[in-house]
Amino acid sequence: MILHTSMLDYCDPEPRAIALPVGAARGRAPLRIASGDDDRARQRVKIGRVELDRRLFGRQRAVSITPTDAMVHVLVPLAGHAVIVGNGESHTLEPGMALLVAGTEKITSVWIAGSRALILHVPRASIQAVSSHVYGNARRLAAIDCRFALTSQAIADENSAEMTEKRILDNLVDALRASPQEAVLFPLARSVQRAVDHIRANPVLTWTIADLAAVAGVTAGTLRRNFSTCLGMSVTQLVLQARIEWVRARLESVTESRSIGELSIAAGFGASGMLNRTYQRHFGETPSQTRTRAFRSRRD
Fold it and tell me: Which sequence spans correspond to the domains of the chain?
């Protein structure tokens, strides 16, 4: 899996002022820092919700990191290596491997002189939302630390030199899924999935958060919070999505004879104007266009 680091890289051993290119963070002025002590030279930039901390260690140095319920961290060596100490064990981290710090205890990384590293500070909810999308059901990120393969090549395509939050998160989740610990890294968020399954099985019904919380077996507040952190959306947004998908399935069905207006009312949208606007935002075409396309494909 790939993570772009070249734009944040610098190798000049002489202490001087360093500027982070504007391209690394669209719409922001260059971030300048003074590296008077190259043992602590660092560059920091925030890309969306992900913060990148680029460090050059001129001498051996220890860096301690403690994950939280809200934030996890990823250590990516670019040169040299670090000895990782925590959870009663130690191991070496070298370029080509990365360490996800998502457990419940503090870890300490001891970097040898001349090492360069990228440290990512990533909201746990961001990783969970991407993994849920990839797996197609509600997932959470387990509270464990994990070593995994991650190279420092560019993730940008040939026409773009910019890093984006989406590229970083997509490649990070892909890399984690390829690790031997994948099965335990992304367990099913069962309470959320129970509510999701119930909504999708009955999308046209009127659901309250209390109804869904009872189905999920958690409190309403917990369900709201878990929807946001595991799926990156609210219960209301998922109900709306399920209804739109139900309408689309009806429009593409050879046996469906109801008009678009009738389907709009059946799905809980009321007047078809609201359905048309929501549907077009979601699918990029109107309900009429979907029905026409489905009819033509059957005829052909």
Answer: 6-185, 190-299
